[in-house]
Write a structure and sequence with these properties.
Layout lengths: L7 E4 L5 E5 L4 E5 L4 E5 L9 E4 L5 E6 L3 E6 L5 E6 L6 E3 L5 E5 L5 E5 L5 E5 L8 E6 L5 E6 L3 E6 L5 E6 L5 E6 L6 E7 L2 E2 L1
Antiparallel strand pairs: 1-2, 2-3, 3-4, 5-6, 6-7, 7-8, 9-10, 10-11, 11-12, 13-14, 14-15, 15-16, 17-18, 18-19
Length: about 200
Amino acid sequence: DAKRRVYDVAFSRDGKLLVTSHPQYVLLWDVAKGTQVRRFEKPEELVGKVAFTPDGRFLFGFGGHDKFFRWDVETGKLLLTVERPHGDAAVLSPDGNSVVASAWSGGVKFLDFETGAEGKSIGSFDNGGSVRGAAVSFDSRYVLYGCDDRYARLVEIESGREVARFGRHLEPVKHVAFSGDGRFAVARVLLDGQDD
């Protein structure tokens, strides 16, 4: 089973567990033993991205373009399925409290990871077009998101104030990430199907 296509992998913060997402299932692994611990309860659609909460008790996943999922790691039970704004990406904030979803309608939306309740919205279609990728700084103070206007925007979450704009890239910004210490950010675009 594990030899089939893998969409994403993630380690627990202590490095003892690994989760893998596949077309038909999500699996939990014991890293030291190299053995499968459990198969998570399968949602109705494929899961393209996975991440553990900082305490390792819950697992985040997002699938397709419009849902995110919350599982109990101990039991593998699917606890929550939430409709989210239509978009290319959703990420779990490093503190494990929020899901940040990119929106084709522009900007990013914050949703409560425990309840799915919609919270703050940052940005708009008029300010960058559709958002294709998002990342949250490790101190959960900033969100970085990539837009169709070929810029990546760094925004202070609490105030909603844009503090920096990176670009103008040759194509829309598809993926963004922060370094572990929060001092650096990276943006990735595709040029004729090739990484820029």
